[in-house]
Queue: 2 jobs
Job 1
Amino acid sequence: MRRIMLATLALSLLLAPALASAQGLLIDTRPDQNFRLPRPIIWPGPRPIPVPQPQQSYKIKELAVNMSLADQVAKVQVSQSFVNTGSRQMEVSFVFPLPYDGAVDRLTFMVDGTEYDAKLLDAGEARRIYEGYIRQNQDPALMEWMGTGMFKTSEFPVPAGAERTVTMRYSQVCRKAGGLTEVLFPMSTAKYTSQPVEKVSVNVALQSQVPIKNVYSPTHSVDVKRPSSIQAVVSYTATNEVPSSDFRLLYDVGDGAVAASVLSYRPLPNEDGYFMMLVSPEIQKATEKPPAKNIIFVVDRSGSMSGKKIEQAKGALKFVLSNLHEGDLFNVIAYDSTVESFRPELQRYNEETRQQALGFVEGIYAGGSTNIDGALKSALSQLVDDSRPSYVVFLTDGLPTAGETKEQQIVINAKDLNKIRTRVFSMGVGYDVNSRLLDRLARECFGQSVYVRPNEDIETYVSQLYNRIGAPAMTDVAMSVDVEGVAVEDGSATNRVYPAEAYDLFAGDQLVVVGRYRKPGAAKVTVSGTVGNKEQSMDFPAQLTEHSVDETYAFIEKLWAMRRVGEIIDEIDLNGQNKELTDELVALSTKHGILTPYTAFLADETSNFRDVAANRRLAADALQGLELAEGQGGFAQRDAKGQLQRAAQAPSGAGGRASFRKADEDKEVQVETVMNVGSKTFLRRGNQWIDSTLTAEQEKAAQKVERYSKEYFDLVTKYGKDAAKYLAIEGEVVVVFDDQAYSF
């Protein structure tokens, strides 16, 4: 068995970003072979039968990453299965492009249990190999990693139809910046496969000597479990997926009731920057009793709830009643044309009241009209004690048909009765709800709207909601940012911060705040709120960058843009259109590739993305769809709006392709003419992918660069490694770097 090279780099690289996995590529580097990396084929219509198979191609069958990380030191094992889908044997090397330089140690590489020779190449030697491969095969794919190092093995055979499983094990020190430790999984290499990857799994076990607070991925929706205050287990799984972006994970540690960390991004020093703040409460110990709360569950029992829906609603009620805590005050209200309470006032939760409430729930049957106004009045009039947080979970599947039926008046009545800032969580079940009413209600009563589709389980949604709000950790949370050198008379240092209203933090919860800042420099972030029944305020240091020299934190701008688009749609929905908001909606959608039902025209290759007046008219016409308060279209629009307002990850799609929810069909539609790559959006017009920021003047002055020429590769040297991902786009491309357009 051949021994693999052990790579140990200097301690001066301790702050290098974590290379947390080794998703690599199989490359036939023999000079007599012309081998392009495989890509999944996207057919515009029905796939031809039989589908032609190239002589050399492979698919990635499975990708499994397991990692343990203690105090910035990561131990990683990665298993990746390749299948030769071509018609002849391949002689390949496993090549892993290092996204950054890294302090790698104790590295081993095996193919089906047999160890192979390998070596780490520095950026200079790697560039020479990259350039040679790209020129030889006329394949731009590896441009994405130009300017970085490489891990490369000796050649090994993969017969036609055969499967090979490669395994890497190594350890590495992760970087720490802005108080956050960063873990990077370069998974985007797995997009080079002839078919979607059957299974992708990532598991990260975090261990620390001090409590772990914020755990956040800007790229993927992860599941986070916390066995204790010093442990966290992060997982991500997907099936039949083509990974389009690297997996990133950020986490911080510290003592205190609340932890906050701030990252910033300012690509243009003459414009406002962007910041993101992560806020998490202290992890509750198993022996600790959560703060007491008031909660009323209000359930629709009108005739339209009959059958499966009422049974699911009753199951959800039973779940909540079995998960309240001693000391909580609660009630259950069921309504149709009449309103009936379990008890006329709030009850203290104990075993006796739980059993009695379960009996009340068992006796709920569907029938009658829908008195939404009466049900809300009954619930809110019982909540008068402001010494503890109060919540109403309000569920309906229909329109107000009894009592007060006017949408605006129902909201006014609820707002007037809400004397103690009760949080109302509206849950719309099925397409027959008045979704605009539920959104108005949640907005005016400090809550949130949740929508359950006809084929989805009510009980699942209610249990997820209650698991989140069941244990308040800090209520009425507010945030302020003070920047050195910014006086009170200069106004707020930040603007357009989302979420915009005061909010609550719950045990196991994490708040993602995004906003913009006017002036860079050292800053103090103050987080205040109520813990138990005491007011608390905590200060945290932050550094708002003057100018970002790379795109490491470009996701902050994209995430802010998503939240801002959601807020614009919400404001138009509830208050009506105006020119300024419509123009901003179109501008943000164009720049960031955030497609909505109102800006889907950007996916039309014949549209002119620079024609402001025409695009305003198109968006204004589409925004009239918000006048639809009920039905499938209203439901889909407001659910999509809420997803944008609560977005926690920047926009991405398969292969970087953008998508949006089509309101009239309530389904997600992926488009092939809008692509998000790095911090940029590209629109396909004719045969070209065009940078969405390209002006008419820049287009006229565009510099033509021949693909694979010296000038083409030198653009990476001139504009840095971030430019390489744009040069890797296939086809004809026009991209803007530092106000200069290049076409290739």
Note: Residues 10 and 103 are 7 Å apart (CA to CA).
Job 2
Amino acid sequence: MRLPRSLRLWSVLLLALFSPPIPAARGDVHGSFGAALDHYLAQLAGYGFSGAVLVAQHGEVVLDQGYGLADRARGTPFTADTLFDIASISKPFTAAAVLRLETQGKLKVEDPISRFFPEAPPDKARITLHQLLTHTAGLPESLGPEYEHLSRHHFLQRVFAAGLAHPPGGRFIYSNDGYSLLAAVVEKVSGRSFGDFLRSEVFLPAGMKHTGFLPDAQDLARLAHGYTGDNDWGTPLDHPHAPDGPWWNLRGNGGILTTTGDLYRWHMALQGNAVLSAAEREKYQSPKVPETGAPYPKYAYGWSVDKSPAGGRQLSHVGGNGVFMSDYRRYPDDGAVIVVASNSVDFSAIAVADQLELRLFGKSFAEPPATVPAEAEQLRRCAGVYVLASGESLAVAAEQNRLAVTPEGREGLEILSPEPERKRQHRFAEREAEVDKALTAALHGKLEPLAEILVDSNAAAERWRASLEATASELGAWKAFTVLGTRSLGGQVVTHARLAFEKGTRVLDVVWAGRTADGVSISRSLRPTWFLPAGPSRFVTFDAGTGGTVRMSCEGTGGAATAVRLETAGGAVTARRSTVGVK
């Protein structure tokens, strides 16, 4: 599975984001299991999670609730009614639109695209709708940035001119362009805009009144902002889009705005014939092609199909655009659903969904450590710069009800990161080796190794080159790099490297989505680790991905702490307050 695009920095508006968890103004929590999930998620909100979660069990919703803030500047809470961008989870709806047209007798999934686009060149004329639906057409992942002003006509020209990775009908290669081509087919066959067709033929029949490309005035007011670390990215509608929806690098493969409740309504609609007949639903959800060399997962039409922890079917899709992230998991044989959405790069919705799945199926899980409110004085006395025995520093900043601890280099990263299990340690080492290889080649002007590890390949590598050139215009030529390490941060696996320029340094973040990198970004410093109060002058951090913790105490009495002591899996480490600049 893939999570497109990039990761960036932490927000200057942290004061608003990291206040005590704000529950949804409207939401549902039912029964002891729902209450246990709500307690867990409220704890995660303290560590940085903001978004919405819906969980259904035995055919009943036990939790539909929001956490954190949907708009930090206005202090607007994330609620069960907040709309968010589901990115690639749009693909199941594109597939449903195609099957809806098949139900109406207007096309067949076996049709070649030449039926709809006679101008298709010979190497692509025989591509079938089935191959586009299963990512086996051989088309590239992406041929341009999501928000590029690109009409349908020019999109088709670009796709038809592109080379194929393999002849149609070959192996699974995830392709956003393939699903945009399907959206073009829907428009050509229906004679309507893709968004209009989805709304009238898919969303409304399913009871999804708050889903689409362009919300009405009431829903627009409930649209979440996204946060790229220190920037308010805004809402999806703050970025370029056509009058009737996304431009064509995004149409069909992403761009849908919805709520947790509407995604549950889609699950319920698939239990009956409101949108698709029984035969079409079976075709829609049946596994077809392996996504990897393993027997599972297999891709259906817009769904990744695997086995649930109980042995039944799991149909899922994830989506992300480097800001919003969502995970949608359906367990039709178990009467269960998990929907998780987040609106910040600081926390992985996928890691949260993994943990909820463990709880849903009675598996063992890591519970966040208990925390307590902290007095402002306790936080302020810990703030400062502390020096490790090696000379590396840790910067501790007091925020509302927590501490932000920012490492300077590799040693600090290792100390602040909960130690992963042995299997993850091996994976982390592999990631660092791949980044080292890619940056070594990039220093010599070769982007191929970087493209190989990136989800959207050459397009992402070129975007990184542009970002690097913009940094070089400020700091001079890029001269060297040092891989600092890999950690799980908010459940996201990130490899960090320090880039040395003629006039300064920057930090490169490489965010991983499985074996490929979601994207790369350049920032001024390493991102902080958040510590919550666990008692007088005692703090703890928890990672949802590894389930690990690191504990920290601020030592000394009276005013400013004289040192911080960090308790890790490898033992205790002390860093002493820096006296540099103190008179």
Note: The chain has three domains: 1-365, 376-408+528-577, 422-523.
